[in-house]
Design a protein that fits this description.
By secondary structure, the protein is an alpha+beta fold. The protein has 2 domains: 2-106, no CATH class; 109-167, Winged helix-like DNA-binding domain superfamily/Winged helix DNA-binding domain (Arc Repressor Mutant, subunit A). It is built from 5 helices and 5 strands. It has helices at 2-14, 113-123, 128-135, 139-153, 158-167; strands spanning 25-34, 40-50, 60-67, 77-87, 90-101. Strands 3-2-1-4-5 form a 5-stranded antiparallel sheet, with no helix packed on it. The radius of gyration is 22 Å and the shape is elongated.
Length: 171
């Protein structure tokens, strides 16, 4: 979505703007990712393009990213383009473009954090007993997590579950 729609729209917009004005525009979008603690977080990325040597082709971007998990909990991607202007000595951002891209929940794995941890260890080839020892759980609890994940994803086998997770970018 980001490569095919958002960056494509940004480049279309930049084609209508002189190279010398690239720094006057702020591009924003949000997305979900897994942090180092294996938790989903929502990130807002805001940036401006750096002019390049080729016409209508930026050399790169400069920007910041913020964790906005506590403010946004749906999976839609909001894409905006703003023009930075100065009015009466005050810098303001004028919204020029806004599009909300709904994201299908098919890519959101409907499992808990603990189930995701079990899934990761399954992908490493660990047995239920090994997973239980690693996560300080009983074997029965690990097997319950496995059954719950199979049910939530409509998979019939552990292999099918692992393929589902790989196919949708969760491993």
């Amino acid at each position: 979505m980001i490569d095919t729609k958002i960056f494509a729209e940004n480049l279309r917009f930049l084609q209508s703007v002189p190279l010398t004005q690239y720094q006057d525009f702020i591009f924003s979008y949000n997305y979900r990712m897994i942090n180092p603690l294996n938790q989903y977080v929502t990130v807002l990325q805001r940036f401006s393009y750096i002019p390049g040597n080729l016409p209508n082709m930026p050399a790169g971007i400069i920007g910041v990213a913020f964790d906005i998990t506590h403010f946004k909990n749906d999976t839609s991607i909001i894409h905006t383009i703003e023009k930075v202007k100065e009015v009466d000595g005050i810098q303001i951002n004028e919204l020029l473009y806004k599009k909300i891209h709904p994201v299908e929940n098919v890519n959101v794995l409907p499992i808990s954090l603990r189930e995701h941890q079990v899934l990761q260890h399954m992908a490493e080839g660990m047995s239920s007993k090994q997973i239980a020892s690693t996560l300080f759980l009983s074997v029965h609890t690990v097997n319950n997590h496995r059954k719950n994940m199979l049910q939530k994803t409509s998979c019939k086998t552990s292999s099918e579950l692992l393929n589902y997770a790989l196919k949708h970018g969760h491993l």
